[in-house]
Amino acid sequence: MAFPGTITVTSPDFDDRARLADRFTAEHENVAPIIEVSGVPHDAVELALICHDPDAPLPFGFTHWTVFGIPSDTTTVTADVGREGITSKNEAGYSGPLPPPGHGEHSYYFWVYALSRPVEGEPTREEFLRDYADAVIEQNRVVGQYSR
Known about the structure:
Elements: E1 8-10, E2 18-19, E3 35-38, E4 46-53, E5 62-71, E6 76-77, E7 83-84, E8 106-115, H1 125-132, E9 136-146
Parallel strand pairs: 2-9
Antiparallel strand pairs: 1-3, 3-6, 4-5, 4-8, 5-7, 8-9
């Protein structure tokens, strides 16, 4: 995979490493935060977004959101700019944070990948990382925190 280069990932809804507001969690409004992207390399064909919690007590963590087919000139990523894929709940769409009570602070990595070729279908996070690692030109992330 590529290292961060010129691509920058931020959110108007939370600061990097700051607590996510309750409205973004599964026990409240369960709405996806807005993710902003800048500095996308000119040779990127499309973008992909994956929100992943590596702190979840599961072998591969928990994937909360996947969006594929995002046009490379997109600056604001929302659910309607691409194809939402499958989460770890085996459902399409955004699945907000819901860590086990008392499990401590979890980190939610909103990764954006600039790709040299389009993503076919709606792969899982693991399938995407396996099948498209060679297509990642650049990647970067913004991280939200949440605990119950």
